[in-house]
Structures are given as C-alpha cells and as structure tokens.
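If you are new to this repository, start here. Below is one unmodified record pulled from the training split, so you can see the exact layout before writing a loader.
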Amino acid sequence: MTMSHAVTETAERLYRLLVESGGSAPRDVLLDGGSPAGAAPFSEADLDALVSLHLVSVEPGTGLVSVLNPRLALTASVARRAAEISRLHAESEQVREGIESLQEVYDSLGGFDDQPQAVERTSDLQVIRSLLSDAGQNCVSEVLTAQPEALQESAVADSRPRDLALLQRGVRMRTIYPHTVLSSPAVQRHFSIMQAAGSEIRTASGIIERVVIFDRKVAFLADRTDPGGGAVIIREPAVVEYLYQSLEQTWRLATPFVYTRVGYGETIDDIKAGILRLMAAGAKDEVVAKRMNMSTRTCRRHISEILAELGADSRFQAGMLAGRLGWIDTSWTEGGRQDIAV
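And here is the target side for that same chain:
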C-alpha cells in the first residue's frame, strides 16, 4: 500500500529554506537547528513527506538534500495514485466476479429472491459491522438501543463517529445501560460527550440482552447461542415492534443519565434493591454479580455495606429484613428461598 503525505506548514518551510540555500543542504544541518529561531523545528517526518512526494531527493552517501521541480513531482504523484486506483479497481472486479459466481450457486437452492430475509443469523463480525453501518446510513428517524454492559474503549472509538454523524443528521438516539456502568469515569465521560451532542441516555437496574433497533424496521440481537459472539438480524415487522415496545417500557422506567464524573448517583438505591432481591432468593455472590452486571469484588463490597446498614448477620437475613421493612418486594420468591441458576 502506498503512503500519502500532506505538505505541512513545517515541510513547506523546509522546502523554501532549501531553495533559499541554493537548492541543497546537508541533511544533518537541516534537522539540527536548520529551522529559524522561534519556529517549529524540522523533523524526519517533514523530510520524509517531501521525499515521498518527490519534492526533494536525499543522496545516499553524503546525505545531501536537494530540491526537485514541483511540476515533475506532481506528475509522478498523480501517476502513482492512478496506478493504485487501477490496482484497486482490478481487485474489486475480481471480488465482484467471484461473489456473483457464488450467487448463482446459492440461487440454485431455489425459493430465494433479492429481498432480505425476515430473520438472519451470522457469526461473521465483519458482516455484522457492515450491516450495522448500512442500517445506520439508511436510518432517518430513530435508533433505540439496550446495552447490557459498557462498550470497550476500542468499540467506543469505532462507534462514536458514526453515532455523532447520525445525530448531526437529526436522527434521535436513545440508549439504555445498566446502572452499574456509571462506576467508570471513562464511561461517564463518553456519556457526557454523547449527551452534549444530543444523544439521550438512561440507566436501569436490569438490562439482559444487547438490542439495537433502527427506525422500528430492523433489529439486531446478540446471538447467545453462538459462542463466537454472532448476531440475529430481524426484519419481521411484528417481532421488531414487539422488541421496540419492550425497550420503550424499559426506557420509561429508566433513570436519565446525570454526569457525576464517578459514582452511581441517584441510581445507587436501585442497585442495592436489585442485590437485596437476589440475596433474599438465596443467590450466591457470583450469581448476584453476574445478574447485576458488576464484578464479584464490587458486588461483595455492596453486600458488606448492606449487611452493616441492616445490622444483619447473613446475606439471606439481610434480604428477609429488607423485605419486612418494605425496602423490596419479596412476593416473587413465593414466601421462601429459591435457588437461582447461573
């Protein structure tokens, strides 16, 4: 792959200095104090950019840097890029021909047309990203999302530009996260950036699956049956509408995000109530942590605080005491302890 370099202000000053010096100068002199006082020093990157664009040449033995005619440099640069475009075009044609030949094989199964299927499943992460990108580009009104956990930094860096582009087009964006993600300062900073751009963010006590719905027409679900982390793409109107209304109900009950820099803010009561309900049902620490989307260590810290606050000697006793005090509704346990599977 060819590298492209822009003529920066510093690189342009370097070229002008060479011209003023008679057209050439030793490399070491240019890079070691060659820049005028008060100006940014010249760097290897500036010199490399000029060499790449055929604006200067460097003599291998002596290191003498000499200017070249910009008109000739332009011709060489355009020719090089034309060759690169030609190569990419040839590769694209080969890919197209190969895929079209496989399309004939696929069509031989019969019963298929060019319309997207109502339900599709894929394990190819590149295909998933491509489908998400295409859905985003075609989205005109709203994206509604549920995220069971905070995105990794790499995923944030990948998604933020696309999300900001959607917001700039006037697309409404709503996302629901579990309360527990608010413990991360990095997550809160990301939320504040997106909120300032117009995104709406809320948190809730229980988000189980990752769901993304575009314009109430297509939904992406995480495929829990796929160990490789695949996705299910749904275009069946009735199913998409059901998913949308389910998320809408969760959204109405969720807590709007408020930037606190770090900490759960007003959502801490909901978090503790969720932990207490699981404790009342007899769930182990690891199970409580998994259900609450937090680490076991963080979960145990919350449990210790709850035990101290209630003056309880055990997790089960704390759950029962909280129920009697009316802090939580334990009627769903049917009056007794239940085992909760992982």
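Two things worth knowing about this chain: The domain at 265-333 is CATH 1.10.10.10 (Arc Repressor Mutant, subunit A). The first strand starts at residue 24 and ends at 26.
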